[in-house]
């Protein structure tokens, strides 16, 4: 007897309703807040309707566009490096070998550490006087650097910390994807005389392309939401060289106490992430890939 099509909806419906309420209510409240001028600690009855003023300010404020530029550059550099390193490490660690389980466990440890602890750790490592990074440079006869006081070096510092923490996520996703590749396909390619390089680029990676796209999507979203590590490392400085959009929103909401402006900028961030997500989901659809 065939199960009616509405039966799965009965099981999924309650959980979907709870998730929808948990996601939609904050989203609608945040968009609503963007139309008001309200400070934390004051009654909502004292909020003043300002219409689209905060949204117009968000689109015309140079600080917002500067933060968006830093965010896009940060996300591009970090995600590109993490995807490249994660896939390369997965290809190296997928083969069964003695002690490989230990190395896999060691590689995923950074992802298990709390972001605050990661920020503190890298802040000490990049310390201008007592940092381990400068100690290594001096050991090789190079001059130490004020990593967190120089705009370019501070950006390098937040990029390195993010790559160190989240490359293991890509590694885990790719190890799981490569483990699901049909062994008979690989064996057939070996019989046909394919080299390791040809098997990797023409067999393995195309077969896990949808997993790569989903992993890319998840890392893009996380890169736009990162806050704690940069908050601890640089707090957006020096100047605004490392002030990503999420940190700019935090400052607008909790430092300047301008929650309406912060909500409007959050909507801008939501739109950017949604557009990037749609692009990634488009390329992650296996059916569309087969048509191409």
Question: What share of residues is helical?
Answer: over 70%
Q: State Rg.
A: 23 Å
* Count of DSSP strands: 2
User: What is the CATH C-level name?
Assistant: Mainly Alpha
The second-level CATH architecture is Orthogonal Bundle
CATH overall fold name: MetI-like fold
Strand numbers in spatial order across the main sheet: 1-2
- In CATH, the homologous superfamily goes by the name MetI-like
Main pleated-sheet profile: 2 strands, antiparallel
Written as H for each helix and E for each strand, in order along the chain, the element string is: HEEHHHHHHHHHHHHH
- Strand-residue proportion: under 5%
The mean pLDDT is 87
Which spans of ≥5 residues are poorly predicted at pLDDT below 50?
Answer: 286-292
Structural class of the secondary structure composition? mainly alpha
Number of DSSP helices? 14
Write structural notes for this entry.
It is a single chain. With 292 residues, the chain is an all-alpha fold. Helix content is 74%, strand content 1%. It has a single domain, classed as MetI-like (MetI-like fold, Orthogonal Bundle), CATH 1.10.3720.10. It is built from 14 helices and 2 strands; from the N terminus they run αββααααααααααααα. The protein has a two-stranded antiparallel ribbon with strand order 1-2. The chain crosses the membrane at residues 7-28, 72-93, 105-125, 163-186, 207-233, 262-283. Keywords: Cell membrane, Membrane, Transmembrane, Transmembrane helix, Transport. InterPro entries: ABC_transporter_permease, MetI-like, MetI-like_sf. This is Inner membrane ABC transporter permease protein YcjO.
């Amino acid at each position: 007897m065939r199960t009616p099509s509405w039966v799965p909806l009965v099981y999924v419906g309650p959980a979907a309703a709870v998730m929808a309420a948990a996601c939609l209510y904050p989203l609608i409240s945040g968009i609503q807040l963007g139309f008001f001028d309200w400070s934390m600690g004051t009654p909502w009855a004292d909020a003043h309707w300002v219409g689209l003023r905060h949204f117009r300010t968000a689109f015309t404020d140079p600080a917002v566009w500067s933060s968006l530029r830093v965010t896009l550059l940060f996300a591009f550099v970090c995600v590109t490096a993490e995807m490249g390193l994660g896939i390369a490490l997965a290809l190296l660690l997928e083969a069964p070998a003695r002690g490989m389980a230990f190395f896999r466990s060691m590689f995923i440890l950074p992802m298990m550490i709390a972001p605050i602890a990661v920020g503190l750790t890298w802040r000490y490592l990049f310390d201008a006087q007592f940092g381990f990074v400068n100690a290594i440079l001096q050991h090789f006869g190079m001059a130490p650097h004020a990593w967190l006081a120089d705009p370019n070096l501070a950006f390098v510092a937040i990029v390195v910390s993010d790559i160190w923490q989240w490359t293991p996520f890509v590694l885990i996703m790719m190890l799981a994807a490569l483990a699901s590749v049909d062994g008979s396909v690989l064996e057939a390619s070996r019989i046909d005389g394919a080299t390791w390089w040809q098997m990797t680029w023409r067999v393995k990676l195309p077969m896990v392309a949808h997993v790569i796209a989903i992993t890319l999507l998840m890392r893009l979203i996380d890169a736009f939401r990162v806050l704690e590590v940069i908050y601890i490392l640089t707090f957006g400085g020096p100047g605004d060289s490392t002030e990503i959009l999420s940190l700019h929103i935090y400052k607008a909401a909790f430092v300047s106490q301008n929650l309406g402006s912060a909500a409007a900028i959050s909507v801008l961030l939501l739109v950017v992430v949604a557009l990037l997500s749609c692009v990634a989901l488009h390329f992650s659809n296996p059916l569309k890939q087969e048509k191409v």
